[in-house]
Structures are given as C-alpha cells and as structure tokens.
Amino acid sequence: MPSSEPSTDVVVERTLIQSSATVFPTSPRTLADVREEVAQSLALRMITKARTVDGVRIGVHFTFSKKDDGLFLRLVTSHIRARLPSSRYLFAIATTGASPTSRGTRSGARTSNALVICGSDEDDVQRAVLLASSKFLGRVDAVQNTGTLLAASVRHIGSSYDDAALWDVLSKSVRTPIDPLLPPPGSRSIDQLLSDARSKLERMTPRQAYDALHDPTYPMPVFLVDIRPASQRAREGGIHGSLIIERNVLEWRFDPRCEARLAIADRYDLKIIIYCQEGYTSSLAAASLHELGLLNATDIVGGFAAWGAAGLPGQIRPPSTISDEESYQISQPSFDSDDVIDGI
C-alpha cells in the first residue's frame, strides 16, 4: 500500500499547541516554518527509502492532501534537489484523499490531487512523462512540464494500482539501454514460465482426470474445461460434457468475485481440470486460476491428444450443476469426430 504522511494542517495544529506551552518563545513558528520543516522531513525520508535502479535513486511517496498541494510538493522537490546536487535521481510524489478545495462539494464532483515527478536528468523525466500518460488515461486534468519537473492534477490518485504504476514508470524510465537481442534482466523464457506454473499444480493424467470426474465421493465439485479455440475443437474434436470456456475469458468466468463469472463459480474449492490440445497452454491457464485463489485448479498431462491416446471415452458425465446454460455450452464433437476444418 502507498505510504502516507500526516496532514500538514494536523502537524501545524500540534506544533502550535506545543508552542503555546512554551513560556515567552523567542521566535514563534509560523505556518510557513512548519510547512518548510515537513517538506524537508519528507524529502529526507524519500531519499533514505529510495531504491536504486541502474545506479539511479528512485522513489514514490503519497501524502495526505494539503492546502496548496502543488506548492507544497514543489517545496519537497527543492529539498530533494538541494540534498542530491550531484546524484542522479527520479522521484514521484502525490497527494491523496479529497483536496481541501473539493471538501464539502456535492457527491460525485470531480476531485483532483497533485502529482509531481522530479528528476536530475531531463531525459529521465520526459520518459517518465510519456509512460505515466498511459497509466492515468482519462484522469489527468492539468499538466505543467518544465523539463526536469512535471506537475499534474490527477483525479482519485492513491490506490495500490497507482503506487505500482508509478514505481513501474520510474523503474523503466531510468534503466540503461540494453542490447535488443539480449533478454532484459529479470525476464523469463517460456520454458521457465511453464516450469514455474507447473510447480504450483497437482497435474493429472487423463485416467486420473476421468476417474475424478466420475467419482461420486469426490470431496468437491469437479469440472472439465476445454480452453481450445473453436477452430481447433472443430478440427480435432472434443469431449462431450466438458465446459467450453476459451482461454481469453477463463479468469473472468471462474473468479468468484467477478460479475461475469459462471453461476457454478461461487466457491474457491472447485476442482477445475483444464485441457488444451497437448497440455502446455493448459498449465499456464491453471496457474493463472491459482492467482485468483482457485488452488485446486489443474490440467491434464498431454492434453486432449493424450486423452485420445489413452482410449478414454469421448463423453463424460455432464456437470450436475448446470444452472446457467447461457453462460457456457456443453462441448462440441468428440475426439473421434470426422468433422475437420482448417484452423489453428
């Protein structure tokens, strides 16, 4: 979650109370003094907690909305600049919550908060501007770009998405250009992705899947799901009784929190057995369902081709909870169908 700072107004109030307890203060502190102190403290905290990417300090920070948000954030950036005169850095600072000017307005009124991106290198800042523009589509009300500093008004900023998006923007903006023929640091090959996905699964052979689908004592509902595209199903055949849910909508159909889910996807312990043609795409798909919390999702080793090679029937017992026939359909021709067309 984004980090936050107490409101400047709160700090001012606390400071004034403390000051009132002092007998005959020699130099009474003003609001400007307190704002200066808070800005300096915030700048120091950002520098201290900064990450380093390719030798560049980067950091993202969210603070509660204050009066004159833009001026306050510029004050913070001036302290960062003063403390890092010869270092390369790129920071993003934003205010969150209802701004003082929008408090008390009618419900649903637009509320914008300040976002400032500052850096020591103009190229870094301008790359960040381009990347950030794609992260906050439709939410930016005003922009002022001065080269090494971007000041913008962004609606409803402060969510976990915004925090992750700004970290992504800064990280990509300062990375050293690499050889386009070499894999970027941290990237993984498809073999690694597949291996990582399968490490999460209790994969099933075609026979194990068939037995689980026909076991009346199985401790949870079991569904067989065909994620292949229509052209491949038409060419290769299918298994009667399986659910046809193509790969591009799988997560939306099985996430119990999603409005577009199937009626049967109302619990997290479902045993969802996915198959594709040869058992590769299905592993990635099942691992994706694990990310949604469906930890019993798995796939068939070897896919539909292995099912046919094992001599298993081209039909299974249909799901016993068909309560929304328009949300999905029972599968098309069985694996021994002669209906073959061109396709994937």
UniProtKB/TrEMBL annotation:
Which SUPFAM superfamilies does the entry link to? Rhodanese/Cell cycle control phosphatase
One Pfam entry for this protein is Rhodanese
Per the record, the domain of life is Eukaryota
**Residue intervals of the Rhodanese domain:** 222-316
**What is this protein called in UniProt?**
Rhodanese domain-containing protein
